[in-house]
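Table 4 source record.
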Amino acid sequence: MATKTKTQKNSRLKPTVKSASSNGRPGNGRPAGKAPAIRVNQYGIPDWRLEQPEFEVIEVTDGPEVHYEIKGELSTPVPPIRESKYLTKDQHLELYRWMVMNRRMEVALENLYKQSKVVGGVYFGLGQEACSCASAYALGPDDWFAPMIRNQGAQLVRGFHARDIMMQYMAKAGSPTHGKDGTSHYGDIEKRHMVSPISMLGDLLPVMAGVSLGARLQGKELACLTWIGDGGQSTGVSYEGINFAAVRKLGLVLIIESNLWAYSTPMEYQVNVKDLANRAIGYGMPGVIIDGTDACQVYDATYEAVERAHRGEGPTMIEAKLMRMKGHAIHDAAAYVPKEMHEFWRKRDCIDRFQKYLLEKKWLTPAQDKEMIAGIEKEIDAEREFAENSPMPEGHTAAEGVFCEDGCHTIKPKYGIPKKAKRSEGTLKETEAAIHFK
């Protein structure tokens, strides 16, 4: 007989926004319409979402087998898109194009994998394109970002080509790592200000806090954006990195992609809080809850966090509620996810919602949409063909660029000479540690 163990509500719970300058990036210009009222959760965290779904994930034990069921109100209508306070009409259209490009590129990657042309696995951000693209789109030209495995759209927005990502997965000589690594393990600290993903989840947080600190020492306040899942946000190094950024008021912009499943573990069974943004209270930093399938909410929340960072006001925690629509990676069929849960979030597909929004506002016609998608497919086909026809690396290059040799590159300040503390003339003071040692 099936027994039900531990039930907990998985409710989806909006932050006030300030006027801000564009600082040379998208999002500076249109007068704000009358926005819906901002709600707060039980701990006072602003919640921008236009719906707060209520349902329960239940662990069911039936003999040796364990599976999950879901119950609650799952037939509610899909909420509208929340009007952006910052994006112009043209920026809406450009953002939509990036999101479609992101998805079509990942479809191409999946096909390459099925054709055995990918070395290793493939990780997808299906359903998370708004979160990746809109947040990266809100950065200024000098700001830094550090994507995780589902944030390939952010790489496209920040200047990488689809061919770069495809060649990386195929371990081609022309890939960013010249065939020496797979998946998303590469960066570009010179031009695109991208820090390479780190497989140990959470480790990017202190790294990005360090990037912000390094820039400050050189006289520049920057936003340093990174993402983490609900599972990764529970790691110890996450706490250390966030706390350091909060104490030093560093420009860390953290987006928690609260995508409901840490691999095969539902969020309720790994944390005892309904909203991960509540954790911002303990760090003494602002937190906000948004609908991660609403590109306008993602953009506006990130835009404001970036502005705070530019003013030297410290980090921001943004919890984006959404659903990981595929398994952890291509090898994971996600059979543990209740079908009703998938269907609920499929109706809230971020691209479908944004497309409908643009059509309803008459900023996009069906003919223009069809033409744009055809253009993207043509571009992706060309990028895939380029990647497939690119050569594999020669054997003799295996050791090249692995170890740093004298003179291989110069490390120098990027923004200016770091500030040094002034030291008084005369004898140095003995430190407490030195006295204790004696």
